[in-house]
Amino acid sequence: MRKRYQTLVDLDATAEDRAASADRGLRWLVEQGVVRPETVAREAFRRCGEHPPGERWHTAVAPSDGEPGDGVTVVAVGCVFDGGPLREPEQAWCPHCAGRLHLLPTEGRAGPGGRQPWDRVKDAIDTWVDTGRAVLACGHCGRDGDLTAWTWEGNYFAFAHLGFEFWDWPELRDSFVEEFARVLDGHRLTVVRGSV
User: Fold this and answer.
1) CB count, 10 Å around CB of 106?
2) Beta-carbon-side half-sphere exposure of residue 15 (alpha carbons within 13 Å)
3) Are 9 and 193 in contact (CB under 8 A)?
4) How far is residue 43's CA from residue 5's CA, in Å, rounded to a whole number?
5) 3-state class of 59 per DSSP?
6) Other Cβ atoms within 10 Å of 41 Cβ, number
7) In angstroms, how far apart are the furthest CA atoms of the chain?
8) What are phi and psi of 111, to 5 degrees?
9) What is the β-pairing status of strands 91-93 and 79-82?
């Protein structure tokens, strides 16, 4: 059975402060009744324990007929958050010139070194996973752009040290996301949606 998720990714949490931010965010979710404090184990693809929905889970979501199917997982490690294997982004935009990088393999779209764009993206992702830093060269302006600053179609990727994964929940409210950002000291949050 397919599982949908929405991940609130903290773009400003660092490797040094991610544990404190994760604790602060989880404590607030529990205080608000959005999740319960205990964890349960789920399927093998989960990264860690999951917090079941709390009595006031509905305050986090837009009006809907649905209820959460699962809970919330806190991921406090350097991670590539993505939209899952059922879809891939077709394009990304350079942080310097907003030039579009077409990611699907096509003849004539090879970039620096004659490599296909998606191969270069995968190499940059591997470097980011290994080192926490990576650049991706733009085929338009020729400049290297920090991988984390590129814009990905459909918010497919986010590279960060902290995320809160809501599994099979109705759509999160914008106002909830904004309030959660304030709880995390005003950190920038992005929402990555996907399914597995």
Assistant:
1) 10
2) 6
3) no
4) 14
5) helix
6) 9
7) 55
8) -105, -150
9) unpaired
Of 28, 81, 38, the closest CA to residue 59 belongs to 28
Low-confidence ranges of the chain (pLDDT < 50): 44, 47
Q: Which of 94, 91, 77, 188 is nearest to 128 (CA)?
A: 77
Report pLDDT for 85: 85
CB 2 within 8 A of CB 8: no
What pairs with residue 157 in β-bridges?
Answer: 82
Domain positions in the chain are 4-83+156-195, 91-153
d(CA 117, CA 41): 38
Pair 33, 55: CB distance under 8 Å? yes
Which three-class secondary structure state does DSSP give residue 124? Answer: helix
What whole-number distance in Å separates Cα of residue 163 and Cα of residue 190?
A: 9
The radius of gyration of the chain from alpha carbons, rounded to an integer in Å, stands at 18
Instruction: Identify the bridge partners of residue 135 per DSSP, sorted by sequence position.
Output: 146
What is the rounded end-to-end Cα distance, in angstroms, of the chain? 9
pLDDT digits (tens, 9 = 90+) for 181-193: 999 999 999 999 9
